[in-house]
Amino acid sequence: MGITKLADLIRAEAPAAISHKDIGDYTGKVIALDASIVMNQFRTATPSLQYLSPLTGLFFRTLTFLEHDIKPVFVFDGKPPGEKRAVLEKRAEAAGWSSPNRSGTASSQTKDCLHLLKLLGVPVIQAPGDGEALCARLVRDGTVDAVASEDMDTLPFGGSVLIRQLNAKKDGDIIEYSLPKLLDILKITQKEFVDLCILLGCDYCDKIAGLGPKRALNLIQQHRTLENVVLHVNRKTHPVPHFWCYQDARNLFLDGPQIAAHDLVWAEPDEEALVDFLCHTKHVKEHRVRGRMVKFRQTRENKREEREANRAAGCSRQTRMEDFFRVTRKRKQLSEGGESVSGKDGPEKKAKTTKIQPKGAGEGSSRH
To answer: For residues 132 and 84, is the Cβ–Cβ distance under 8 A?
Structure first.
């Protein structure tokens, strides 16, 4: 999934494009999450509970985001592009499925997750195609502040801020990639970066065999386009695929999905409806759900009292944009893997709204 060895290449050639953060650094930010990635993480973490684990995982993790005043927007996959057919068939075979889902029709588990997020008061968006493509479009348009995904495809799709390992661990090492910094350090354009990702290997077409990450980068920096790379590469040692559909892959990355204007609304979680759904319908133990909701309310109340105390002491200040992008600390080792699961209240629906403005509607999107 994603771009082959892109994370390794960035660590080696452009480490300054990476910063390490804590979950608290994203307080007040609107973050688009690739829902399919999140669901797969929970299925992998507890394979014996493959049906329930995405539901309980989403429940606990979403509440943790809301406790930190993070505004999550979950983006669900639509119909995958035809160019992805080969890789989907390979994944289905590896998973033991009879055939991949090429229709984009939501499974019963996906429908349950959509219902859960509605009860949690969190907005969801149905992508026309791959979810990471729409996530990238949302951050490019300024509708969200960042994309949270383990899929490095977000960067060639144009997502300017990619967050990996955004989970519920308080001391977790969250890794943030800055696309503008990456392009500046590598001295390439976004289109050239897309060509580099195709050379490395992506989901939408074959790659030239035998090219390592460093060699692929050197070729793009020297020749600038895939067409020129093909003219200069040694075809005996690096055979070019027959009927190579690199142009289709390039267009998918560069031509983002078109989205209509609509509202993003965050509402209060409906505790009784959550208990009815998770406990009475899906048979999650009620004390787990009730206990987590109690903790959620207490945490939110403590943060409210802290803000009021700061205001009374004259210590409140508006969060600056540069605070969001700062490097908080560096660690001796990068941990790229591993996800952990950690886990609002009352019937009142006190909502906040964000509008997605259509492309060309103005200088920037408004967030209220």
So the answer is: no
In angstroms, the CA 18 to CA 164 distance is 11
**Sequence ranges of the domains in the chain:** 188-254
Judged by DSSP in three states, 32 sits in strand
Q: Bridge-partner residues for 209, per DSSP?
A: none
Cβ-based burial of 1 (10 A; exposed 0-12, middle 13-18, buried ≥19): middle
Residue in 117, 112, 12, 126 with CA at minimum distance from that of residue 52: 112
User: Do you know the residue count of the chain?
Assistant: 368
* Pairing relationship of beta strands 174-178 and 146-148 according to DSSP bridges: unpaired
Choose among 268, 274, 275, 196: nearest CA to 228: 196
Provide the token pair at 62.
Answer: 């979403």
CA distance 368 to 365: 10
Radius of gyration of the chain, Cα coordinates, nearest whole angstrom: 22
Tokens of 195: 């060509």
Phi, psi angle pair for 151, to nearest 5°: -90, 115
pLDDT of residue 322: 43
pTM of the full structure: 0.79
pLDDT tens, 125-175?
999 999 999 999 999 999 999 999 999 999 999 999 999 999 866 667 899
Distances (CA, A) of 267 to 147, 231, 264, 345: 21, 56, 10, 10
Contact (CB, 8 A) for 31 and 66:
no
* Separation of alpha carbons 148 and 296, rounded Å: 22
| Residue 116 φ then ψ, to 5° | -60, -45
Name which of 175, 137, 197, 294 is nearest 2 in CA terms. Answer: 197
DSSP one-letter code for 207: -
Quote the CA–CA distance of 46 and 186 in Å, as a whole number. 39
Pairing between β-strand 352-355 and β-strand 263-266 as defined by DSSP bridges: antiparallel
Q: Which residue bears the tokens 């029709």?
A: 105
DSSP codes joined into one string, 93-124: HHHT-SS---S-PPPHHHHHHHHHHHHHT--E
Architecture of 188-254 per CATH?
Orthogonal Bundle (1.10)
83-93 pLDDT tens trace: 666 665 565 55
